[in-house]
Specification:
Among the domains are: 316 residues, Peptidase S8/S53 domain (Rossmann fold, 3-Layer(aba) Sandwich), CATH 3.40.50.200; 135 residues, no CATH class; 308 residues, Autotransporter beta-domain (Lipocalin), CATH 2.40.128. 24% of the residues lie in helices and 36% in strands. It contains 25 helices and 52 strands. The longest helix is centred in the N-terminal third of the chain and has 26 residues.
Length: 1098
């Protein structure tokens, strides 16, 4: 790729030298905390080694195409993964060549529509008459050109977006002077573009690589500069402030003069100072580019950027300069051909054109009435184009000195002589001639790259730098970003902020560590969940100013107001002298505030292990000594401390005050109220613990309103001395029972209260009691459910509900072999199996659970007559219960035996039966409270008795038999509970008596077969059951050294609707099979089961 150079090779070798120099200076930087996944390498991989990541960028071909990125230390941003993502930068320039690959990513460039007349550049695009114009494209590529493989370079903030506004510069465009100066049309809106870009609400930065010229020396006094530059902007730039935009201006290419009037706008409107940057061009840390204007009185918002031979994107073209020069004989343009400097070439162009104009005037005067005015004007236009093309060929730029010639034609004095009509016609002829010649000798070849020099190149480098900072600190205001940017600078020229290079050259590694100076009191907003670390030493900006700057800006002192819910950590030795105020989130001072008094209020918190000057805690403000790395640290205040009403002192302590945070005060401590909050570790606390939470060299006056702690049953107590405040702990009046969230928790809490208050028994295991006393309220509330033993009661309720398995099987047989008709005195054998699961939800203080049940039954019955039969049943069921909320599981294995019978009296059926089961119960639960943890095992037996009776009436309607029925069942469960596993083990009895009254109906419908063939029937049932007793299962429990207490369990069988559907196949007169579904339903419980049955008659 061949690069063209604008203004010559002014800084090419300096730029190469800078790469090594900057890399060496960055080696001493402390490695920051790596982003998740590691530091970013230039090749897209990740590494844990910071220096390896930096080196990968410094040696990357795109990064090192010129010196600019190394000059600013941008490798430090890229290694952290910063690319400008999420930022939009406004570009107020000559337009962008949109087809360039550096702008090919989706949504990369948005164009701003302006009010210029047709025929000019608009919507961010280049003036169509000046397709060679590369200035805006070059600037845009420097700021945010995409990083594309195979291209020579990428923009500083290569993942940022661009919002382009076309400024329509006059260079290279003769018609610009005709339309703008003579006809008064709107062709250029550069200042309005700033306002309009700001009003989009989308841009954070607006780059302006343009400005007017001045002859003021850079060291002109402020009164002198104001006399020349002062403007009454009024609220013209208010949208910049309202939308918090950073406006970046190139200082100008005035070869050592003062920065331009636009870069100096804050001199006329001081409100703009924090939102304005002026940028000079330095080719190295030791040399300014010869073409640059210097900062002058913009010094406090001025920096030095890299702008010499900077490579960036341009629309490419090839110009046949030899062919152009061949059109214009050297003899006719001797001065233009003989000039050896830009200045000499400019003067020669002016003189040449003045000669053309004077010749025209002389000819017009001599020609009289026969003078051909039109031909003369055409010739002057041709000469203007010729001078532009020759000078352009000498400069390698089609613009030539168009602007100077246009100014000569449209100056007020000259038009008074030439007439506006003459100047208008000449400009039109000159444009036509210029376009004609260029159309023959210029070839547009698409996208390209070029090395340009000027402050126009330095400014976009700084704008890209700013976009990276805004990505890193997304909540920060522009004023704060600007302070961080300028104060990160490496000092150049005169020590301190001076009139030449301002603050100096911004350095990214410094900027990522926060500001080094503040020009005013800045809001620092850190979002919730974000931790920002400022490790630089932060001072007042004025302390950095050189004497010639300080004389006019001596009021620039810094301060900060911490806002937002996140954390800001200061680790440096900070000596700014403005206020420090915390209104939100946490300010952690691990360094020092040597000259700033701190105030915390609102919803703010201040802490750390550093040193403060003075400290005031207002209402809502929290003082919290220590930090995340050292929660038991000491915060030191050299001067005085004042706690006002509504304030808080937050003390963090390990068990028994072995380590705790504290406040050391070098002056006096005044306490006008507020609270002390003890955040204590859980453990075995000694009531004789003493913590000196405030040590004050000066007198302690006043008292806190009180103290509180997150320990559930221990209260902090404060005592005061002349020079300190001491915190001790004592038992409070809170009971365990009062923390219960439901009746079961309250019940076990009452027993625990009795145990805590019982001091008898020398060999008692007090581990549970001590764990309670040392725990916080949330911890106790979270543990009480696991201490109740509720699983034992709920297993009893589940066992009672599951008696329906054998009861339903026997009742079905008691009705006559599942639909078979008894004939003679035969014997039938049968079997059934069932499987299902259920879920109980939390209700009335009983915890939620999941259950699973399975079992089988076998039996035999004998018909004593056609209307009377009896039978016996045996079986085994298994029920399991899991309750994560109780940290408990349990199962009941029941071996069952039952007898049953039935009799028919006309259309009525009577069924009777009873059963007994031995329940083998196993439970596992965890009782846990902070460090206390018992794995408790219960292994015991229980008994389940039941007796039932049912009366039904049946009536056949077609193929369906309807059978309404009523039933009563009495069930008793009784188990002796015994657990092992620690101090939280329970013993006692679980009992339940249920008197179940059921009303329902059954149907049996013949679907197919019969009359000697297999018969298929559908069987349904629907019923409602109410427990007349209604008490549910109760666990009468006790700890080993505590009183008895009652725990209620789940009662699935009460007030429940049951239903089912099955299909019965009577394969023969002696054999039948049935499969189906049955379930229980109520608000807090449901149970779904499938079953299968068979019977064979002998």
């Amino acid at each position: 790729m061949a690069f063209s150079f604008k203004l010559g090779l002014l800084a090419a070798t300096a730029g190469v030298a800078m790469l090594a120099g900057t890399a060496a200076s960055a080696q001493t930087a402390t490695a920051p905390t790596p982003p998740a996944g590691g530091f970013y390498m230039a090749n897209g991989t990740r590494t844990t080694n910071y220096q390896t990541a930096l080196a990968s960028w410094r040696t990357d071909a795109q990064f090192s195409v010129d010196y600019s990125k190394a000059f600013l230390g941008l490798e430090h941003a890229y290694a952290m993964g910063l690319t400008g993502r999420g930022q939009t930068v406004g570009v107020n320039d000559a337009g962008v060549y949109m087809a360039h690959p550096l702008f090919g990513s989706p949504g990369k460039v948005t164009g701003l529509h302006t009010q210029v007349v047709a025929g000019y550049g608009n919507d961010g695009m280049i003036n169509p008459r000046r397709q060679w114009e590369g200035h805006g494209t070059h600037v845009s590529g420097t700021i945010a050109g995409d990083r594309v493989a195979g291209q020579p370079m990428f923009g500083n903030a290569f993942n940022a977006k661009l919002y382009a506004a076309t400024a329509n510069f006059s260079a290279g465009d003769f018609l610009w002077y005709k339309d703008a100066i003579i006809d008064g049309k709107i062709v250029a809106t550069q200042n309005q573009n700033i306002v309009d870009l700001a009003n989009t609400g989308e841009v954070r930065i607006i780059n302006n690589s343009w400005g007017s010229s001045t002859t003021l020396p850079f060291n002109a006094s402020l009164p002198t500069v104001l006399a020349s530059f002062n403007r009454n902007y009024g609220d013209y730039y208010k949208p910049v402030l309202d939308n918090d935009v950073l406006v970046v201006f190139s200082a100008g290419n005035g070869y050592g003069v003062h920065a331009s009037i636009d870069a100096a706008a804050p001199l006329s409107d001081p409100r703009l100072r924090s939102n304005w940057l002026s940028v000079a061009n330095y080719s190295s840390f030791t040399a300014a580019d010869p073409s640059t204007s210097f900062c002058g009185q913009t010094a406090t918002w001025c920096v030095a950027g890299p702008g010499s031979a900077v490579v960036s994107s341009v629309p490419a073209y090839e110009m046949d300069w030899r062919g152009i020069l061949a059109l214009y004989p050297r003899a006719n343009y001797a001065g233009l051909y003989s000039a050896t400097t830009v200045s000499a070439l400019q003067n020669a162009s002016i003189n040449q054109f003045l000669g053309v104009l004077n010749n025209y005037l002389a000819a017009r005067q001599a020609g009289g009435a026969n003078f051909d005015e039109e031909a003369a004007r055409r010739e002057v236009g041709r000469q203007a184009a010729a001078i532009t093309l020759i000078s352009g060929a000498r400069l390698g730029d089609p613009d030539g000195f168009t602007s100077i010639l246009g100014q000569l034609l449209t100056s007020t004095n000259n038009m008074a002589i030439l007439t506006p009509a003459f100047s208008r016609a000449v400009l039109e002829y000159a444009d036509a001639e210029l376009q004609r010649v260029l159309g023959q000798y210029i070839d547009y070849t698409g996208a390209g790259y070029a090395a340009y020099t000027g402050t126009s190149m330095a400014a976009p480098n700084i704008s890209g730098f700013g976009a990276l900072l805004m990505e890193n600190f997304p909540e920060y205001s522009t004023a704060l970003i600007s302070d961080i940017l300028v104060s990160s600078s490496r000092d150049l020229d005169t020590p301190g902020v001076d009139l030449r290079s301002g603050w100096g050259a911004p350095q990214m590694d410094v900027a990522l560590r926060g500001p080094t100076a503040l020009r005013d009191t800045r809001d620092v907003t850190v979002a919730v969940g974000t931790v920002d670390i400022w490790s630089n030493n932060i001072g007042d900006a004025r302390d950095r100013y050189s004497p010639e700057v300080l004389v006019n800006f001596g009021a620039d002192i810094g301060g900060l107001v911490k806002k937002g819910g996140g954390q800001l950590i200061l680790t440096g030795a900070n000596d700014y002298s403005g206020p420090t105020r915390v209104e939100g989130g946490l300010l952690t001072v691990n360094g020092s505030l040597l000259r700033s008094s701190a105030t915390v209020g609102g919803v703010g918190m201040i802490g750390g292990t550093g040193r403060l000057l003075n400290l005031t805690a207002e209402s809502g403000g929290v003082v919290s000594p220590g930090d995340g790395a050292n929660p038991f640290g000491t915060l030191t205040v050299a001067g005085d401390v004042n706690f006002k009403p509504g304030s808080f002192l937050w003390i963090r302590s390990s068990v028994n005050g072995g380590a705790y945070s504290r406040l050391n005060v070098g002056g006096a401590t005044r306490i006008d109220g507020g609270q002390v909050i003890l955040k204590a570790d859980n453990g075995e606390w000694n009531l004789r613990t003493r913590m000196n939470i405030i040590n004050s060299t000066g007198a302690v006056t006043g008292t806190f309103t009180g103290a509180q702690s997150d320990l559930a049953f221990l209260a902090p107590v404060l005592t005061y001395s002349t020079n300190g405040v001491v915190l001790t702990v004592r038992r409070n009046d809170v009971t365990v029972a009062s923390l219960g969230g439901n009746p079961n928790q309250t019940s076990v809490g009452g027993a625990l209260d009795a145990m805590i208050n019982n001091t008898a028994g020398a060999n008692r295991d007090l581990s549970l009691e001590n764990a309670l006393l040392d725990a916080s309220v949330p911890a106790v509330q979270g543990a009480l459910g696991g201490l109740t033993g509720e699983v034992h009661a709920s297993l009893g309720g589940l066992a009672v509900s599951d008696t329906r398995t054998i009861r339903e099987a026997m009742s079905d047989r008691g009705g006559g072999e599942g639909g078979q008709t008894y004939v003679g005195n035969g014997v039938s054998v049968w079997g059934s199996g069932v499987y299902g699961d259920g879920r109980g939800s939390s209700h009335d203080g009983v915890a939620s659970f999941r259950s699973e049940s399975s079992g089988y039954m076998v039996g035999a019955d004998k018909a004593l007559s056609d209307d009377l039969h009896i039978g016996v049943a045996l079986g085994e069921t298994r029920s399991e219960l899991r309750s994560p909320r109780l940290r408990s599981t349990g199962r009941v294995n029941s071996e069952q035996i039952g007898v049953y019978g039935g009799a028919g009296v006309g259309d009525f059926q009577i069924r009777l039966g009873g059963s007994w089961a031995n329940a083998d119960v196993r439970t596992d639960r965890t009782a846990q409270l902070n460090a206390f943890s018992n794995a408790l095992v219960g292994d015991y037996d229980g008994d389940v008795w039941q007796a039932y009776g049912e009366v039904s009436w049946s009536r056949a309607v077609g193929a369906t038999v309807f059978e309404p029925y009523g039933a009563y069942s009495h069930v008793e469960y009784d188990a002796d509970v015994a657990e092992t596993g620690g101090d939280a083990a329970l013993s006692g009895k679980v009992k339940q008596k249920a008197d179940l009254l059921t009303a329902g109906f059954r149907t049996r419908t013949v679907l197919a077969g019969g009359q000697g063939r297999p018969r298929l029937s559908a069987v349904t049932h629907l019923a409602y059951t109410h427990d007349l007793n209604g008490d549910g299962p109760v666990f009468d429990a006790a700890f080993a050294d505590g009183p008895r207490f009652l725990i209620q369990g789940a009662n699935p069988g009460d007030d429940v609707v049951s239903g089912g559907l099955s299909f019965n196949i009577q394969a023969s007169e002696r054999t039948a099979f049935e499969m189906g579904y049955t379930g229980l339903y109520k608000d807090e419980y449901y149970d779904n089961r499938i079953f299968g049955r068979f019977s064979v008659k002998f």
